[in-house]
Known about the structure:
There is one protein chain. The protein is of the alpha+beta class. Helices cover 23% and strands 24% of the residues. It has two helices and three strands. The chain has a three-stranded antiparallel β-sheet with strand order 1-3-2, with helices on one face. Strand 2 and strand 3 form a beta hairpin.
Amino acid sequence: MPLRQADLAEDAHAHHHQGHAVSGAYLRSMAKFLRGQHGQFRAARVQTVHLAGGAVLRVEFTAPSPLGLLGPHA
């Protein structure tokens, strides 16, 4: 069964290694990009979720409909 949800996170190790603090800029820019998608590529839900390791962007898609059942018939 295909997964319909993904949690996206910035690579915090790279930022801490370079001496930078991890900010919410990544999450905001990704949310803006994902909300701008159209048609079948648009997510059903995009939200910020706070987990033990930090904040992530949770992206959810709806289940696909069976092929040909909802479209025009030839």
